[in-house]
Specification:
Helices cover about 10% and strands about 45% of the residues. The chain is mainly β. The chain has one domain. The protein has a six-stranded antiparallel sheet with strand order 1-2-3-4-12-11, with no helix packed on it. Strands 10-9-7-6-13-14 form a six-stranded antiparallel sheet. The protein has a two-stranded antiparallel ribbon with strand order 5-8. A hairpin with an 8-residue loop joins strand 6 and strand 7. The longest helix is centred in the N-terminal third of the chain and has 14 residues.
Length: about 200
């Protein structure tokens, strides 16, 4: 495991140590819906500023809608000032299934700067990857699966089928769900989060 991976896991678990569970509502199809409200204007970049989020855990999928203050039609990626293999953009729904303040999964839309890449401009949807990550007990990360996701106006939608991993169906009232965003252009780091 690289030092960067260890730092990310430590930060995720420190973040969770300040979280508590949110209240949820139930829908007719046995779905649970978790709603979150962010603090608008607390970060410098509108595409990092989380205004709200809704997480729907249904019988088949987890559907996450992360609403940002504004997502431009095009953004710069593979920033020249950013070192290779560094995280550039990230939008995450994190899940601590058993409520022990250790993250178990992250449903994410993200962009890492790959080696030998050149600076470019494109839509967030076109240059980002969408994945379900499992955080293992030893702190390492496993990419379990690509997942569907898209950007529509200022909303990022990620859909994670529960069938990908049987532990996802164990989300309950004691589970902790958090939302975070991150941006790094090699000169400035900006991040936002909602943790109930």
């Amino acid at each position: 495991m690289k030092i960067v991976d260890i730092v990310v896991v430590v930060i995720a678990n420190m973040f969770l140590s300040s979280c508590s569970n949110s209240t949820s509502s139930e829908e007719n199809d046995d779905s649970k819906v978790y709603s979150y409200q962010g603090i608008i204007g607390n970060v410098s970049f509108d595409f990092v500023d989380i205004t709200s989020a809704t997480i729907r855990i249904g019988p088949e999928n987890i559907t996450a809608n992360i609403v940002l203050k504004n997502i431009p039609d095009s953004l710069v990626y593979n920033h020249t000032a950013l070192d290779h293999n560094y995280l550039e953009y990230e939008y995450v729904v994190g899940i601590d299934v058993n409520g022990d303040k250790r993250a178990d999964y992250e449903i994410a839309m993200e962009k890492w700067k790959t080696p030998n890449s050149t600076e470019a401009v494109g839509s967030l949807n076109s240059f980002s990857q969408k994945n379900l990550w499992k955080i293992n007990s030893d702190g390492s990360w496993s990419n379990i699966s690509d997942i569907p996701g898209n950007v529509n106006s200022s909303t990022i939608t990620l859909i994670c089928p529960l069938a990908i991993d049987s532990n996802l169906s164990k989300i309950q009232s004691s589970s902790i769900i958090y939302i975070k965003s991150y941006y790094n252009n090699g000169e400035v780091i900006s991040k936002d989060s909602i943790c109930p």
